[in-house]
Amino acid sequence: MAPTFRKFEEFLVAQVSTFSPEIRDAAKFAIIPKGKYIRPTLVMSAASESAGLDTVVRRSAVVELAHLSTLIHDDVIDNASVRRSLPTANSRYGARTAILLGDVIFSHVMVMAVEDPDRRVIEEVSKCMRVICEGEIRQTLSDKTDLVSRARYYDMVYGKTGALFELSCRLGAMATGSRGWESAAAEAGKELGIAYQIYDDVCDWFMSEAQAGKTLGTDLVSGKQTFPLIIMLERLSKDKAREFVKNLPSSDFLEIRRRMFEEGVLGECSSEILNRIALAEAALEKFPNLNARLLDCCAAFRRMDGVCNRSQL
Q1: Residue 32 in contact with residue 89, Cβ under 8 Å?
Q2: Mean pLDDT in runs of 10 for the chain (313 residues)?
Q3: For residues 217 and 251, what is the distance between their CA atoms, to the nearest angstrom?
Q4: Percent of residues in the chain assigned helix, strand, coil, to nearest 5
Q5: For residue 149, what is the DSSP state?
Q6: What are phi and psi of 87, to 5 degrees?
Q7: I need a labelling partner for 200 at 20 to 30 A (CA). Which of 115, 143, 231, 310 fits?
Q8: How far from each other are the two terminal CA atoms of the chain, in whole angstroms?
Q9: Which among 161, 179, 157, 160 is positioned nearest to 170, based on CA atoms?
Q10: Domains in the chain and their CATH numbers?
Q11: Do residues 189 and 170 lie in contact, with contact meaning Cβ atoms separated by under 8 Å?
């Protein structure tokens, strides 16, 4: 997919010039730093080789810019200073400007989606962004002293990560003309999104900031119950777990991480990551003529789980 990636990166850089001259430097600061491009990769992987290059490139840019807009807002909410090993927009410009920068990038996403010849693109992008925003609001308004069950966690991370992974696969698959493949690819994307969020949760607890390339420990400070913490809390009585959660923001990060090591939390995180990847692979099985690239993505996610386990070293 190298030629498609080159075209995609050129197209992404070109989007900076679409913004007003006064804000181009800020837009460039937010857009140009190279991330992992997981979501664009999923778009390209779900599209058939016969899909139009311009269509795939544009849709890849749509999901990447949508992702960037949410990251900018997340960094404001978490007061994060580092993202992709660079200062965040929040750190460089302040919260007010960063919020507006995220808004204007999101607005550009919607313009690009409207311009797509397939009317379903704007419909799917709109629904996805609503799910993401509603999920963030629900999490913000939730009582941080309530114990979060695994079922509730999966619902939250669908809105946080799974929905955009799902959209990425759907937009790519829509270029094939097969409705059955669209549904299968979208289901695989959702499962990979949940797997990736668990991995990201593990990073926040067990990796160094140099390894992760972003500010870590924000989940603890904000009182978020992410997957590693939920597993640890399951080992406590309900009363002790509630007391633990009540005092979470002021807890000792290193002490909690030590307990996680002792109680085998990483192993359970790994098992759930692999389970979600297996569900993604199962969703793709019925489409042998279209699934090769997405199955390669699943294999890459399995290697990510290996990194997850080595992070404890």
Answers
A1: no
A2: 92 95 94 89 92 94 96 90 86 95 96 96 97 88 85 93 97 92 98 95 79 65 86 92 88 89 92 96 97 96 71 45
A3: 11
A4: 80, 0, 20
A5: P
A6: -60, 145
A7: 143
A8: 34
A9: 179
A10: 2-310 (1.10.600.10)
A11: yes
